[in-house]
From TrEMBL:
GO terms, molecular function: fructose 1,6-bisphosphate 1-phosphatase activity; magnesium ion binding
EC number(s) on file: 3.1.3.11
Gene this chain is encoded by: fbp
Domain Fructose-1-6-bisphosphatase class 1 C-terminal intervals: 208-328
Pathway in which this enzyme or protein is active: Carbohydrate biosynthesis; Calvin cycle
Full protein name: Fructose-1,6-bisphosphatase class 1
GO terms (BP aspect): fructose 1,6-bisphosphate metabolic process; fructose 6-phosphate metabolic process; fructose metabolic process; gluconeogenesis; sucrose biosynthetic process
Cofactor remark: Binds 2 magnesium ions per subunit.
First and last residue of the signal peptide: none
Chain positions recorded as Mg(2+) 2 binding sites: 122, 125, 281
Organismal lineage: Bacteria, Pseudomonadati, Bacteroidota, Cytophagia, Cytophagales
Catalytic activity: beta-D-fructose 1,6-bisphosphate + H2O = beta-D-fructose 6-phosphate + phosphate
Organism: Hymenobacter luteus
Keywords: Carbohydrate metabolism, Cytoplasm, Hydrolase, Magnesium, Metal-binding
Entry cofactors: Mg(2+)
Amino acid sequence: MNISTENTIAQPVGTTLERYIMRKQAEFPFATGELSQLLRDIALAGKIVNREVNRAGLTSIIGSMGQQNVQGEAQQKLDVEANIRFIRALTNGGEACAVLSEEEDDIIHTGNCQGKYVVAIDPLDGSSNIDVNISIGTIFSIYRRVTPVGESATRADFLQGGRQQVAAGYILYGSSTMLVYTTGHGVAGFTYENSLGEFFLSHPSITIPTSGTVFSCNEGYWFDYPQYVRDYLMQCKREGQSGRYVGSLVADYHRNLLTGGIYLYPPTGKNPNGKLRVLYEAFPLAFLIEQAGGRAESGTGPILDIVATEFHQRTPLFVGSPALVERLLTETEVAPKEEAIEQNHA
């Protein structure tokens, strides 16, 4: 068999997530494999949730549970399914001593008191879109614990601040399933290959474009937005920019990360402190966007500088291409800051 024939019938399939993580382990002088295993555990749970999402319409796991989660939001069946899957994977993996989930009120102790890490997670973002087959996702954030190994995790382990994250990312369940994450050394994306059951490196070094022509927000709240946000959006429309919003944070964020744009979830009269959760939505996405060259702001300062005092604390979020976020903050007349929002950055 000649070389040209070999090249056409045995093309490389690429670098697996497992192999990529092993190669990158040297970037952590304190790591001895635990963080790598933790990322693999998250990926495993993501594969299982991907399977459930793909067959949701053929099983009985679509629709509402008929109850609310700790956030006061209608809980979908797949919310519960994803929550169980991720907690189980993180418990069985042995590296996470505790988990904080959007679906639970308090810390979930895994029984792995020797574990060196804690994980904050939104198991299934955008779950209200499940029944209509729109992309949804998982968002996660990882911290190295501050309490002594061997003891139970406490609030202090989760309330360290966004700049203490050692890894963060998301899994997008869409036309293809992708895992995108950072460990503070750039951003990499992996696409799931169903037939092989593996994530393969597809986006080795993701950098968000400096600017873009897309804005993503729920304009149904237009009259409840602060004036400076409405001024900015009117400016975008006059320039012919495109409004793109599907109502799944991960999906809208992912599009803007790859093509350039800005995602806005401003404060409103109903939610003057914003609606998105700091620990397991805003912090991980802000960490990742900064590693990709973008910006994430609350309207009173960088998201990663928020002082979180509660597990389910909320914040406004403006995240995306740096030029667009800068323009929102400086080229429009920013309204007086709400006192409640300022307290986030106390």
